[in-house]
Amino acid sequence: MKPRNTLNNQSRFKGPLRHYHRAGTKPEKTWDEWVDGPSSKTRSSKGRWKIVGIVIAILALLGIIAGLIIELS
Fold first, then answer.
1. Would you say 6 and 12 are in contact if contact means Cβ atoms under 8 Å apart?
2. Could you read off the pLDDT tens digit of each residue along the chain, which spans 73 residues?
3. Contact, 52 vs 58, CB < 8 A?
4. 64: closest CA among 6, 56, 21?
5. Using CA atoms, how far apart are residues 50 and 25, in angstroms rounded to an integer?
6. Residue 33 CB contacts under 8 Å (≥ 6 apart), including other chains
7. In contact, 39 and 33? CB cutoff 8 Å
8. Any residues with CB less than 8 A from the CB of 15 and at least 6 apart, and which?
């Protein structure tokens, strides 16, 4: 990244904003969104697959623990 050319240390903080300092623009709300609130969006299937994966991992861990307990007793 190239250093900026500055005349003195005070002027370096008075430059224009960089693109990464700007807040993202949000789409304008419609009248219905103002009155009724945001519309309920359905969950993506990606979130459901994540939950299924976590449940399977927990069941596998419990199976390993149960197997070790049975084997060691």
1. yes
2. 666 665 555 555 566 656 565 566 667 777 777 788 776 665 567 788 999 999 999 999 999 999 999 999 8
3. no
4. 56
5. 30
6. 39
7. yes
8. 4
- Distance in Å from the first CA to the final CA of the chain: 63
For the chain, what's the residue count?
73
For the four alpha carbons of 43, 45, 46 and 49, in that order, the dihedral sign comes to: positive
Tokens of residue 46, six digits: 């990606």
Distance set, CA 61 to CA 47, 53, 73 (Å): 21, 12, 18
φ, ψ at 11 (rounded to 5°): -75, -15
Q: Give the global pTM.
A: 0.41
